[in-house]
Write a structure and sequence with these properties.
With 912 residues, this protein is an alpha+beta fold. The protein has 11 helices and 52 strands. A 10-stranded antiparallel beta sheet has the order 7-10-9-8-11-16-13-14-15-12. The chain has a 6-stranded antiparallel beta sheet with strand order 41-3-4-30-1-42, with no helix packed on it. Strands 18-28-27-19-29 form a 5-stranded antiparallel beta sheet, with no helix packed on it. The chain is elongated, with a radius of gyration of 45 Å.
Length: 912
Amino acid sequence: MSTAMSELDFCGCCSADESTPAIYNRPGLAALAYRSGTHPTVLQRMLKRLATQKVEQGGRPLAQLNARAGDDPAIALLDAWATLADVLTFYQERIANEGYLRTATEQRSIVELVRTISYELSPGVAASTFLAFTVEDAVGAPGVATVPLGTKVKSIPAQGQRPQTFETSEEIQARAEWNALKPRLTEPYAVDTGTCELYLKGITTQIQPGDGILLVGDERDKEDTGSERWDFRILQTVTPYSGQDYTLVSWKEGLGSVKVKPAEKNLRVFAFRQRASLFGYNAPDFRGMADSVKKAYYPTFDFSQPQSKWPTEWPNFSIQTIAQKIIDLDTAYPKIVESSWLVLKTTSYVELYKAQSVSIDSRTDFTLSSKTTRVVLDTNEHLNRFGLRTTTVYAQSEPLELAEKPKSEPVYGNTIVLDRLVSSLIKDQTLIVSGKRGRVIIKDNKDNAQGLTLKSADGKREVILKPGDRLQVIVHSDDDQSKWTLMDRDGFVGVVTAGANQLTLQSSDKDDATVYEVAFIKVLPPPDRDHTTLTLRDPLANYYDRTTVTINANVARATHGETVQNEVLGNGNGAQPNQRFTLQKPPLTYVSAPTASGGATTLELRVNDLLWQEVPSLYRLQADSRAYSVRLTAEGKPQVIFGDGEQGARLPTGVENVRATYRSGIGLEGMVAANQLTLLQTRPLGIRSVTNPLAATGAADRENMESARRNAPLKVLTLDRIVSLQDYADFARNFAGIGKAKAVAMWSGEERLVHLTVAAGTGKEIDKTSDLYKSLVKAIDTYRDPGQRFEVVSFEIFPFSLTAHVLVDQPRYIRAKVLAQVIDSLLQAFAFEQREFGQPVTAAEVIAVIQQASQGVLAVRLDEKPPLWSLKNDKTGETGTILLAPIASKPDEKTGLLRINPDGIKLEEWNA
């Protein structure tokens, strides 16, 4: 014992002996044991030492004190000192614990401890999203609007939520024509040899199967009346499509022939509304007529003599006016007009004519007399081939308007051709693309005789596809046309390798969900005559059914928080150093930014209307620096601190001369769902409505104590620079809004690549279009070694299920309550916050969690024989007593995180 301690311990009661316990704390404990004793142990120790206690004059007079009852004055005095020692050692232990970051339990302790290494608890970060505005397009409206910076939009809260305010972080020019841009839905239909179908505009064409149509162009109409470049066809099918406003017609024999091509110049289509016959088609059979009638038509013919050639038809029973280019129809057809088309058709021949004149006349011949329609044709070519009885005349031609062919190709990749010319779009403009995913159907043919297999990304789960299965297309790249990423009806997503002869593209189902994504215009090429082509910065993440796609180009970024304008903080006092003011409407909004901390303040502070600069610390500032720092109190209130005249300038004296403008609102409250932000608090002129097609992302609450314990040392390790592989993960973990990170080194070709997997603090994936992702990538790029390539990718959740037999101590404990405690413990132990990327789950770990969940658990048994493995990866189908989470080994791969499936916990009765 030292001299100083000897002087203090004049009675010797502080000396250690066999009754004084040795205090030892092993590394890694969450709390320190630092008490030398409690009331009972201290009292017992003092009573034990009474008999051996010496006094200055020598001897041990207290050895004769035999009283041990609590009401004895001497013993009562010792009891009082034991109580005092109990209290003192209690607080001594608490003080010792509060002196270390790992064991501190008070917020203030942690705040002060981390400040010793220049670390401030992260204030959190505001959520961000994209707002899609709709411009008023009513008649008379200007159709153009300006959405200024700071436009306020409030959310419609769900049950148990509070309304949240978002403000636009950029000014945009909006136009009515950008409300709902559509991709090109049709394309010119090339009519060529062999064509068997045609698209006509409208659904009220009044044509039916069996009707005749004519396809003709200038080759026959204007250039050469003898041209054969035209086609007449009898329709087989007529299918109207009301949704697309067109009618598809088809016929059996393809257009043109080996020698003659179909019409090309100014192609037009006509429907024939009238089917007629030539005059005389219904004349009586000549052979059945009386001889007197026959004599009238054959005066010199001797009918009494045997005939080697008997007339089988009326004399000259064919068109008699070929030279005059005239035909007579069987009755009056007033709707057949001049310049209309007529087609004369027999069973073996067909010819096209144009009416030069049309008149209603009468004719008597072949024992018939009736009104006729006399048509003068534009040519008499081949008229001699048409008999009166065998010819059908298609007349009363009516033009039909051709429609373009519907485009069936899905919308994907990084190019979108719009259905019209769109003006004033600019480079880097933000777009919201929405639609339903396209589908494919598995064909039933010999190419699928062995069946197609849908495999998970890691190859551990397979689903055999059958002909007729319809699956949603998630991804299909032009780089490898044979690979498709599909989702089946059970939600399983996998990759299948199939050729075009094995899959057929299908439209989406009526009940399919609409998906949304953000896109940015990379370059806007000059438009063609009729359409604008958009080239996107990145390929679309989805594979859309073209008919469901809508693009909104009136999009602005927005972040959570409401502006507090020109708030008076107080009066400056030049005689007072380090003046402090607390903002009146916390929490102060911080938005995601490419800084080392991941956030940037929205506070703007002016003194006497002069803007002062915010700095992380006042340390080593010049005496005249007009700067201030912001610190959060232990309660989370933002406090503004000014200099003392030596390190940072003091405030000048004035009345209400310290004013602040800032935004209030931060954290997970701002994580509004899609389409919740619909209330315009400030309505720009010409704006009809607003919504957020995508849910808000990137928010984080103020850093809690557990996070500070973990992240504060990382700042010392990285020192705001990234050198080693671990630095990438540490830097990301310390970035506001990031919950987990893991860095892996791998090769990409001949280059070394750092593959960084990150997750948001909410446990969700990070959208690459979000402010959080972009800020993180830019910050890493700023602080890293410029020669080192890196990529930031999101993670993948792998839920797992388990089956356990639990033996409950009954009837002492209620089985239902014990099992409920077991489930709660499992959910907590295998939650996102407790797991790391790539961390496996073992049966032993599961058993330990269940066993420690309640004192009512006597024993736990997991099945160990297939097919009843106790642990199962729900995504890959992997089973066993150890489940592994995949770790990325190639660029763009995702590292996995195992989380328990709340619906997959099965606790069964114990069967010995």
